[in-house]
Amino acid sequence: MPSILLRFSILINAALACCVPAEPLFAIEKPNIILLFADDQRADTIGAHGNTAIKTPNLDQLASSGYSFRNNYCAGSFSGAVCVASRAMLMTGRHWMRIPTAKKSSDWAELPLLPSWLEKQADYKTFIVGKWHNGKATLQQAFSDGKSVYMGGMVNHAAFKVQDFTDNQLSASRDAGGFSSEVFADEAVDFIESAKTDQPFFLYVAFTAPHDPRNPPEEFREMYYQNRPPLPRNFLPEHPFKNAPQSTMGRDEGLAPWPRTREIVSDQLCEYYGLVTHLDLQVGRILAALKDSPHADNTYVIYTADHGLAMGSHGLLGKQNIYEQSMKCPLLISGPSINRDQTSQAFTYVHDLYATICDFAEVKQPDGIDSLSLVDLINGDSEKVRDSIFLPFQDNQRSVNDGHWKLHIYPQINHRLLFDLKSDPHEMTNLAEAPEQQEKILQLTETMNSWRSTLGDPTPLVVENPQPKEATYDNRNRRMDVWQPDWIRKKYFNGRKAPDHGSKK
Predict the structure, then answer these.
(1) How far apart, in whole angstroms, are the C-alpha atoms of residue 195 and residue 205?
(2) What are the domain boundaries of the chain?
């Protein structure tokens, strides 16, 4: 424990001097962009944003040095692998409903992907480190170079293989040689230290943490076993109805048996927090390297995640749902001319970073994107970029949120939920059957239909022959993947052997 805290204290003092306000935006040259992308990180796992049970000193400093967007969302998904859809939206700047054949990444590789757009419009050097879950064709279209690229959805953080990306080609796979977050931070630090000052760069660092397997280095999980965080306020042993087809919920939801016990969810939450804290330490190393580089005063640092994670909320563990904890994720931005310690409650999407980064780089935005720039919010010239947020998940879940009220619709089972988020931010009391709220449901349905019309959503909100609402939870159907280490298999799967084949995220 002391060693962890000592490392934190060293990095906290050094990490973010690069992010204090500097000269006026774009006064001299194009700025550099560092985009740090976490995997499966809930929005409420940052100490500076009110979570006193988690240690994230470097993210706390990043928040205090710049701008925090507290209502940032992934815009749903076309598959149970929500990561794939989220990254597709980030790289194209488009909502997943408006990405041609979004499930087949090779068919949208020719769209103006964010890194290649920066390279084409302003001669940015583009460099990828870490996870790429959208296929080789889009990787080749998006980036010019990279190191330690993981081509896949999830990984045993302590034992995995990576590839290097040079001259638009992937090398043979090699052992990563360390823990995922450390390996990716090492490559990011090396890039920053060697980057020249005569060409702006876009550095994309996609971590695989805190995605499961929840196997942080032992000292990082022990620190939470010894000082346990509280369970989510909306913890339930089981979700009360079938929010998605059982096949969609499979892998993530099978990481713990049903019914969920407080003891098992507490252990997994400790392990999850350990991954976040270990990741935070690596973020500190990257920021310290930036501070000591010639790029310190001319670099935007952006930290976000692909989506959130249930982790016991509503009886769920995964992200295949439209509750706040699963679709909401952090967004922190710091850099030239951004005022310190600012916060916005405006509705934003992860894919709004496309237009925002274009504005940072002073390049035009391509035609056809849905991304909205956040620069006016950052500069204080506006208070919002949209009036509501729409979260469609496959053909089985829809929600709309106007900042006060949130409506869930489950088309395949003809079921609705209504929450007053002002008094019930954890979505615990369903008001959909209250007679006095029927007018509110009609208003929100109209807002949802406006979104559906704009995006071309083909899914009806009501079906003639609905499926049963009742969920079935059978522990015999739990699926374990090959990436879970032995101690997790023993602890949560009774020592079962892993299958011979993998499974998607």
Answers:
(1) 15
(2) 2-386, 393-455
Q: Which amino acid is at 328?
A: K
Strands 397-401, 342-349: pairing is unpaired
How is domain 2-386 classified at the architecture level of CATH? 3-Layer(aba) Sandwich (3.40)
The amino acid that residue 446 corresponds to is E
Please tell me the distance from the alpha carbon of residue 443 to that of residue 313, in angstroms, as a whole number.
28
Q: Where are the alpha helices (DSSP H) in 104-245?
A: 114-122, 136-142, 180-194, 218-225
- Phi, psi (rounded to 5 degrees) for 216: -65, 165
* Calpha distance 413→242 (Å, rounded): 8
The tokens describing 163, both together, are 């590839």
Spatial distance between the Cα atoms of 129 and 187, rounded to a whole number of angstroms: 7
Q: Where are the alpha helices (DSSP H) in 304-437?
A: 324-327, 352-360, 375-379
- Chain position carrying tokens 């947020």: 389
Give dist(CA 458, CA 476) in Å, integer.
35
Within 8 A by CB and 6+ apart from 132, the residues are 87, 138, 139, 149, 150, 151, 206
Closest CA to 371 of 42, 114, 195, 4: 114
**Closest to 281 measured CA to CA, from 181, 365, 196, 367:** 181
Cis peptide before 210 (omega within 30 of 0): yes
Question: pLDDT by residue (tens digit) across 114-161?
Answer: 999 999 999 999 999 999 998 899 999 999 999 999 999 889 999 999
- Tokens coding 299: 């670099």
Predicted TM-score of the model (pTM): 0.93
- Asked, as a colleague might, if the bond just before 112 is cis with ω within 30 of 0, I would say no
CA contacts within 13 A on the Cβ side of 277? 28
| Dist CA 15 CA 3 (whole Å) | 18
Exposure class string for 200-225: b at 16+ Cβ within 10 A, else e: bbbbbbbbbbbbbbbbbbeebbebbe
Q: What is the pLDDT of residues 262-296, one digit of tens each?
A: 999 999 999 999 999 999 999 999 999 999 999 99
Whole-number Å distance between alpha carbons of 346 and 419: 19
Task: Please tell me the CATH code under which domain 393-455 is placed.
Answer: 3.30.1120.10
